[in-house]
Amino acid sequence: MVDGVLVKYNNVFDMMLDVIISTMEKLGHRQTVVMVTKTGWPTGGGDLISVKEYAKL
């Protein structure tokens, strides 16, 4: 729900972007440009690591 209006999102990305933009607007940053340059998992593409190693991150 956004400002009392039920909103349906088709994917999580759109929802997350809407949350960021609406939060910035509520904080008074209405002219701030939000630019997404990449999406996906934060990885360098190297070898797979164990669950224990992920927990350390």
Please, could you describe this protein's structure?
The chain has a domain at 1-38. It is elongated, with a radius of gyration of 16 Å. The mean pLDDT is 80. By secondary structure, the chain is mainly α. Helix content is 37%, strand content 0%.
Provide the fold topology.
Blueprint: H1 12-26, H2 51-56
Features:
hydrolase, glucan endo-1,3-beta-D-glucosidase activity, 37% helix, Glyco_hydro_17, 57 residues, glycosidase
Q: For the record, give the distance between the C-alpha atoms at the N and C termini, rounded to a whole number.
A: 32 Å
- Number of DSSP helices? 2
- Secondary-structure-derived class: mainly alpha
**Gyration radius, rounded:** 16 Å
Mean pLDDT: 80
The percentage of residues in β strands lies in under 5%
Low-pLDDT windows of residues: none
